[in-house]
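Late entry, written up from scratch paper. The run itself happened at the end of the previous shift, but nothing got recorded in the book at the time, so transcribing now.
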Amino acid sequence: MNYNIQTNFFNVKEVSVFLKLSALTVYKYISEKKIKAIQFGGRYLIDKSSLNKFVKERKLSKSST
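Output as recorded:
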């Protein structure tokens, strides 16, 4: 039996690798509500759409300066 589970959630470590930031910076962004996350089982999970929104907002603010 094969299970193919595709998730739309990432943990802090995965986000830090993707954004090339430290995990502490990702936690800081979560606490400042710059990245929306849910706490599940003592861990933070970041929704794919929230991560895309965060990146898109940063791209827009850099290009407008």
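The chain is about 50% helix and 20% strand.
(Scratch paper discarded after transcription.)
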